[in-house]
Amino acid sequence: QVQLVESGGGLVQAGGSLTLSCAASGFKFSIYTMSWYRQAPGKERELVAASPRSVGGDGGGPYYADSVKGRFTISRDNAKNTTYLQMNSLKPEDTAVYYCHAAHRYFTDYWGKGSPVTVSS
C-alpha cells in the first residue's frame, strides 16, 4: 500500500523556520521525483520545490519556485524513503497546506494528505 505521510507543519511567527518531512512507503522511492506543493485558501495548488530522482535520472538539480528561492531547501534521504522541506525566513504568504508528491514518467503519481503551515505576522 502506497503512503506519503507529511509531518512537521504548524504555527510559526514570521521570520521563523519549519522543516516538513514526507515519509514514503509502498513504492520505489529512489526512482521518483519528489516534490512539495502548497495550496493557500482560495488559491490553486502550486509547485514549491522538486527533487529529481537520484537513480536513473539526468543529474539535474532541485527546482524552486521564485517565491521561495533562497529560503526553502528540498532534500531527500533514499535510505529512509523520506524527503524534507526546510523552510526559513517564513512569511505570512507562505501560509498554506503543504503536500508531498511523488512522480515518475511511466508510473502512477502519488499525493500525501497535506500538512498545514500557518505563519503569523
Can I get a quick summary?
With 121 residues, the chain is mostly beta strands. It contains no helices and eleven strands. The chain has strands at residues 3-7, 10-13, 18-25, 33-39, 46-51, 63-64, 72-77, 82-87, 96-104, 107-111, 115-120.
Structure write-up:
Strands 2, 4, 5, 6, 9, 10 and 11 form a seven-stranded mixed β-sheet that branches. The protein has a four-stranded antiparallel β-sheet with strand order 1-3-8-7, with no helix packed on it. By secondary structure, the protein is mostly beta strands. The chain is built from no helices and eleven strands. It is 0% helix and 53% strand. β9 (96-104) and β10 (107-111) form a beta hairpin. It has strands at 3-7, 10-13, 18-25, 33-39, 46-51, 63-64, 72-77, 82-87, 96-104, 107-111, 115-120. The radius of gyration is 14 Å and the shape is globular.
Number of helices: 0
Uncertain spans: none
Structural class: mainly beta
Task: Return the average pLDDT rounded to an integer.
Answer: 93
Note the gap between the termini: 40 Å
Relative strand content:
over 45%
What proportion of the residues is helical, as a percent range? Answer: under 10%
Question: How would you summarize the topology of this molecule?
Answer:
Layout: E1 3-7, E2 10-13, E3 18-25, E4 33-39, E5 46-51, E6 63-64, E7 72-77, E8 82-87, E9 96-104, E10 107-111, E11 115-120
